[in-house]
Design brief:
The protein is an alpha/beta fold. The chain is about 45% helix and about 15% strand. Bound molecules: nicotinamide-adenine-dinucleotide. Nicotinamide-adenine-dinucleotide binds near residues 20, 45 and 186.
Length: about 260
């Protein structure tokens, strides 16, 4: 790679924390940032990743719902490396509603994990980014569900929509410290969260594919590439924005 491109897309010496890094999209983001030269702390509830990972990712065990525990992950990383440059708020859950009695419980669980915890993580990381004075980047993983209505998932839609708007608010507060806050809204990316639906709900799969401009599901590396861009110097004039990595789902028109 030329020195020019290395300056734009390289992360040598930088320190990144990626939540939900044990599998799926989070693992791909952690591996990609490490490949690009960052020291990556991969946060997972179980510290044992269930897929192979590249060198450069150190796994730590933490439930992001525990704000104090996540703060300690950040302060430990800062003490060890003397800086913190990137937070990727990737960890998230989808709780299906099976009966009417489940509705409020599912809503509360998703607001707690997919919205509130992302805010507490952003506070913990950005306080240290401010202290280091090197600027920084926060990338929040939202969803196509933040812009499109989906049946039977009000909690997920509310949490992810809230997270998108939280990012804009944080971009305002953190911009003076050169800390940028952006979102990635993935469409349908095949991971353990949804792989089963390819065979258990073939009608839904076919309806979905028909709606996508690119007529295929996405891969985890395609979200990781967008995260690398938003966290890198190449993305240095973007803040408060959202990249839809969705095969054209968000903006498909008539035709
Ligand atoms: N896969 C998709 O099609 C898709 C689409 C849109 C958005 N997303 C979002 O992308 C992100 C990653 O999804 P994925 O498909 O890789 O899912 P996944 O279930 O494969 O991975 C989610 C990861 O988050 C971790 N996690 C969940 N709650 C946690 C907590 N409280 N503390 C620590 N870790 C926790 C899980 O252990 C897991 O490692 C999620 O925020 C999800 O909502 C996924």
């Amino acid at each position: 790679m030329s020195a020019f491109l290395d300056n734009l897309f390289g992360f040598n010496g930088q320190v990144a924390i990626v939540t939900g890094a044990s599998r799926g999209i989070g693992a791909a983001i952690a591996d990609t940032l490490a490949e690009a030269g960052a020291h990556v702390i991969g946060v997972a509830r179980s510290a044992k990743p269930d897929q192979a990972s590249v060198a450069g990712v150190t796994y730590v065990s933490c439930d992001i719902a525990d704000a104090d525990a996540f703060k300690k992950v950040c302060t430990d990383a800062f003490a060890r490396h003397g800086r913190l440059d990137i937070l990727v708020n990737n960890a998230g859950i989808f709780v299906p509603i099976k009966t009417d009695d489940d509705r409020i419980k599912a809503f509360d669980a998703m607001i707690a994990a997919d919205l509130r915890a992302c805010y507490t993580c952003a506070i913990a990381a950005s306080d240290l980014m401010k202290k280091a004075g090197n600027g920084g980047a926060i990338v929040n993983i939202t969803s196509i569900g933040a812009v499109r209505g989906f049946a039977n998932m009000p909690g997920y839609a509310a949490a992810k929509g809230g997270l998108e708007h939280l990012s804009r608010a944080l971009a305002m507060d953190l911009g003076p410290h050169n800390i940028r806050v952006n979102n990635i809204a993935p469409g349908y990316i095949i991971t353990s969260m949804n792989r089963h639906t390819l065979t258990t709900d073939t009608a839904g799969r076919d309806r979905r594919l028909a709606r996508l401009i690119l007529k295929r599901h996405g891969d985890t590396w395609e979200v990781a590439a967008a995260a690398l861009f938003l966290a890198s110097k190449a993305g240095s004039y973007l803040t408060g924005d959202t990249l839809h990595v969705d095969g054209g789902w968000a903006w498909q028109g008539m035709g």
